[in-house]
Amino acid sequence: MTHDAADPPYLQVDDLRVRFSTADGEVRAVDGVSFGLGRGRTLGIVGESGSGKSVTSLAVMGLHDPTRTTITGAITLGGRQLVGMPDDQMQKLRGRDVAMIFQDPLSALHPFYTVGRQLVEAYRTHHPGESKAQARKRAVDMLGRVGIPQPDRRFSQYPHEFSGGMRQRVMIAMSLMNDPALLIADEPTTALDVTVQAQILDLLADLQREFHSAVILITHDLGVVSQVADEVLVMYGGRAVEHGTVAQVMRGPQHPYTWGLLASIPSLHGDPDVDLKPIKGNPPSLINVPAGCAFHPRCAYAMKPEPCAADVPQLLPVLADGHRVACHLPEDRRTSIYTEEIAHVGVAQ
Amino acid sequence: MTEPLLKVRGLTKHFAVRQGAAGGKALVRAVDGVDLDVHPGETLGLVGESGCGKTTTGRMLVRLLDPTSGSIEFEGRDITRLGRSAMRPLRQDLQIIFQDPYSSLNPRHTVGKIVAMPLEVNGIKPPGGIKTRVQELLELVGLNPEHYNRFPHEFSGGQRQRIGIARALALRPKLIVADEPVSALDVSIQAQVVNLLRDLQRELDLAFVFIAHDLAVVRHFSRRVAVMYLGKVVEVGDRADIYERPRHPYTKALLSAVPDVAAFGEPRQRIRLTGDVPTPLNPPSGCRFRTRCWKAQDICATEEPALITRDGSAQAVACHFPEPAGPEAAVLVPAQATAHVSEVTE
């Protein structure tokens, strides 16, 4: 994937905050996230369960229940403001300008209808003037494009007649029916076997080149990100803690949480007898996020109580171009910790 | 070499399923002739994709499923057909840890009761009482012994997996089958549990059969590794051999498909298999991998390759055209494979 710096960001998210009210209290699922993404670029959003990565993407899709959810900040998609957009307008964008691929294709496809019927519906919703025959032709084309053999025959089959990998291809075909400028893939390969995952990741990269869309890839798997993304946004406790190119984040990570992730994952290449270095403790509850930096209770390098337990660190640029990190540690200290303690453990080695 | 603790020969499990509207019977050949040895204190990793039979194998090893045929010997004694009561004393030596820390713990029982259950069922009265022993176990797996009276829902996923481990350790087993013990956990928690299992193994001299689909986790945890495909072991050997010098095309393809952060930015050989794993209802004739293999010849469809060692290598491989053994093997690309193999730089 090429770096096209001239593209203005097609998607711009500014200070996004998403809150849910629940019986237990207010959940701060996303707490001030900002990033931009140009067409032709892939952003990997990485984080563990409860980091806010899926909630962020659902906000971009306008899929939160408005009666329970408070969304503030700005989401600009191709010049249009999505936060506060009436639902009938949002519906016109959804599926056409921005489309989504979910983790579990079996529950995202309707079991009663043939995949062909679902693909045709996705197309004709946004192209009411087109005939059924034209829509069918496009659907069969698209099934072929995503690598489904005998697309003509498969068009008339039901979701249960497809294997997991093939079903995910159907989902991808459906998301591409209307040439979306932004494609959000939420854990698209997590449910798949590794050889099939490799096929789907290749397919996504090929299609992106062809359609020049912007892609947000949400995953917990840093390996997947390192393979297909241009940029990485690391999320923790509803906030962005690190953002940069894949090379910057994988080869010179700056945030202690990113270090923890890299040192927690065993590698296929390093010394298997070196013990992993897990992050101690558990991710925070989003109802009761720790004061200051949300990561400070698990951080081995936190300066307590001040400033780490008191002030929320801002996502600020570090020396390398475009690389940003939200951490109170001075940059030279971060660099020395990384080289001395992290760079030889897990996949960081 | 010492006598194996566990010796498995020709292990087979076929499930009868109804097929089609007429309700005709068909056989799912989930496990179809597996040989394995596990030595005291060692870890054998069992890897493969979904449907390869690794979980079914694991469950047969601890006799949660009855094999269709084949034999399982534990410490030289054939346990394949032992009944419930004859199995009971053996359950002390053979334990299992399950993948899902939510469904494998009874939500109505306290943690204390869950961990004490194996002791009570087997009528074991540890010195100092059951409660003391349970608290020791909780401490051993890194849980607060004072949480004895809490219920599973009060714990996080990683802590629940620790409870499952404490229960498996209660009877001081010699062998634990760990079936995907970390795959339901977040990355940072995975590492905590993997480190715990490694510490316990060193301390207690446990043998493990470690079943997982994550090749990097298996490499980190296992001395020897067996690779399964559609109910068969296709390759087995020492960790270094399997990961550095894979000889079966499937092992090679599997390793090449893993997205590894550590390999980021380095040019690497990439093999892309086409299609999905065929159904075990009607596996391909001859070599089961041949439908996705770039090296397949006529013989692969007619003759099933035996799992054998050759060329003086200790690594056993079931392939008519294995990759050469030796240190240079990993860099060789077969000429026929050009359609599937490409050099890529990321």
TrEMBL record, chain A:
Highest taxon of source: Bacteria
Keyword tRNA processing carried by entry: no
Domain ABC transporter: 11-262
Protein localization: Cell membrane
Pfam families found in the cross-reference section: ABC_tran, oligo_HPY
Topological category with respect to the lipid bilayer: Peripheral membrane protein
GO BP terms in the entry: peptide transport
UniProt keyword terms in alphabetical order: ATP-binding, Cell membrane, Membrane, Nucleotide-binding, Transport
Molecular function in Gene Ontology: ATP binding; ATP hydrolysis activity
Keyword field contains Membrane: yes
Cellular component, GO annotation: plasma membrane
Similarity section: Belongs to the ABC transporter superfamily.
PANTHER family tied to this protein: DIPEPTIDE TRANSPORT ATP-BINDING PROTEIN DPPD, OLIGOPEPTIDE TRANSPORT ATP-BINDING PROTEIN APPD
Protein name, entry field: Dipeptide/oligopeptide/nickel ABC transporter ATP-binding protein
Lineage of source species: Bacteria, Bacillati, Actinomycetota, Actinomycetes, Micromonosporales
TrEMBL record, chain B:
Pfam families found in the cross-reference section: ABC_tran, oligo_HPY
GO MF term (any one): ATP hydrolysis activity
Superkingdom, taxonomy of origin: Bacteria
Keyword ATP-binding: yes
InterPro entries for the chain: AAA+_ATPase, ABC_transp_ATP-bind, ABC_transporter-like_ATP-bd, ABC_transporter-like_CS, Oligopep_ABC_C, P-loop_NTPase
Chain ranges of the ABC transporter domain: 6-255
Family as reported in the entry's similarity comment: Belongs to the ABC transporter superfamily.
Name of the protein described by the UniProt record: Dipeptide/oligopeptide/nickel ABC transporter ATP-binding protein
Originating species: Catellatospora bangladeshensis
